[in-house]
Amino acid sequence: MLSAVPISWFLTLSAVLFALGVAGFLFRRNIITVFMSIELMLNAVNLSFVTFSYHYKSVDGHLFTFFVMVVAAAEAAVGLAIILTVFKNRGTLNIDDVDSMKN
Amino acid sequence: MDVILFLVFALIAVVCAINVVVQTHPISSALSLVGVMGSLAVLYLLLGAEFIAAAQVIVYAGAIMVLFIFVIMLLNAGAETRKGRSYMVQLLGVPLLIAFLGLAAFFVQRMYGDEAVTFGLFQKGGPKEIGQALFTTYLLPFEVTSLLILVAIVGAIVLARKEFD
Q1: What is the CATH number of the domain that holds B73?
Q2: Residue B138 with chain A: CB contacts under 8 Å
Q3: Least confident of A82-86, B53-57, B84-88
Q4: ipTM of the complex
Q5: Which CA distances in Å does A30 have to A25, B10, B32?
Q6: Residue B135 and residue B57 share a domain
Q7: How close is the nearest chain A Cα to the Cα of B38, in Å?
Q8: Distance between CA A35 and CA A87 in Å, rounded?
Q9: Which among B33, B113, B155 has CB closest to A6?
Q10: For residue range B89-125, what is the model confidence (pLDDT) as tens digits?
């Protein structure tokens, strides 16, 4: 029985969460769920930042996580405003229907 | 104890993350995402990042997810309807994803295999140390951040208020 958690488990968990975020970003068709998958990816990257901060015994990784959180908050505010505008103009949340830049 | 705590919350995080991807209704996805964020906060505490754990709960699980749920409620978003779904993606994507994850786990195991996380060994994750670094080494990025937030607020108001004919 292990007494302490290996650092590689944290990094593997981060990779798993990031891959699930990518999968959600690619598979899903609802624009809000796509946006939530991006948040999932940001969280996965935050976990590896904090893990490497532990590895190097320095506080810099925590600062990066802090900045990622701030940028995520700003991105969520602007992104959701864009989603509101798209819905107001087109009446749909399906990203397959929002394709006026395609042709 | 540490291992049990890690395994429990890692399992919760992965199950909730899978739930985010497979649920068809946005509200279910959003609530699962709150579960991912909460269990990640526990893992941050395990790594000695007390300030980041608190900020994760307050900013992510509190503010950002409330914003998401607010917009889902506002738009009255229903379950997602699929059309023209590609089976090629599932046929090719899922095995490739598992292969990529296995490869990543293998290399991470080889590079950092001997180091272990002991709770309480890393003491520099409190608000005092974070604040000290934030107002000395990272002062300029911190101030730029405030500008970014201001721009985001103005942009969100302009976008959401805009009237189209």
Answers
A1: 1.20.120.1200
A2: 63
A3: B84-88
A4: 0.90
A5: 10, 27, 16
A6: no
A7: 11
A8: 14
A9: B113
A10: 778 878 888 898 899 888 888 888 778 887 878 888 8
